[in-house]
Amino acid sequence: MTGTSKYIDGLLSVSKVCSTISRRDRYHSAAQLFFQTISNQMEARTQTNPGDRTFFSKSFENAIIAGFNTLPEIKAEANPTIEWDKRKAKGFPRKQLDIIAYNENTEDKAVVFEIKSRHFNPMAAAIMEFAVALRYGLKIKSANFVIPPNQCCFTVLLADCTCLDEAYFNMLFPLIRVDGFAPELHCIFRNDLVRERKSDIIFNTVYRLYREYGVYLTS
Known about the structure:
Blueprint: H1 6-18, H2 26-48, H3 55-68, E1 74-78, E2 81-84, E3 95-96, E4 99-103, E5 110-117, H4 120-136, E6 137-141, E7 146-147, E8 152-161, H5 165-172, E9 184-190, H6 191-195, H7 199-218
Parallel strand pairs: 5-8, 8-9
Antiparallel strand pairs: 1-4, 2-3, 2-6, 4-5, 6-7
């Protein structure tokens, strides 16, 4: 696509291939919808913003939510807000996270996502945000759901990532001394896999994301 980066061209190419992979179960259907959503939104945005990579994170967020919302019993919403424990965090600013996914029929667990790009600094920021939410948050609230932070699974979603990012993550989060803090990491569009057009591997990465959290939220 003229005017866009090679990486964005690769993302679009891979996403279009993945969006046509046949359906076998509910988690494959969720993954397929993820790729359909992201390819449609990115293609529309690149026509009006050629060369601009900032559109990618919003398209990625919308696609993640769309996939979760196809799964029975599960609901995903954008921009959950941390309600601070004022005894511990007086004067803390309003803070939103990126996505919360939960079971509409229970109130005992949820998955909270922060979407970041590759490398050390964005990942460190996400880990710190989660740790502060767990330590000083009273509740995490979306439009239709409220839950204490200690009942959440905190997950860093790297949309744009490299082979080194998992090592960075494993080095960073043990440094945080907060009881019960065990964040998870999922890397989706790894740059070498995008470059080599490894559509099957990338599709299975998204499939495993939906299966892991779909089973967790409904068990």
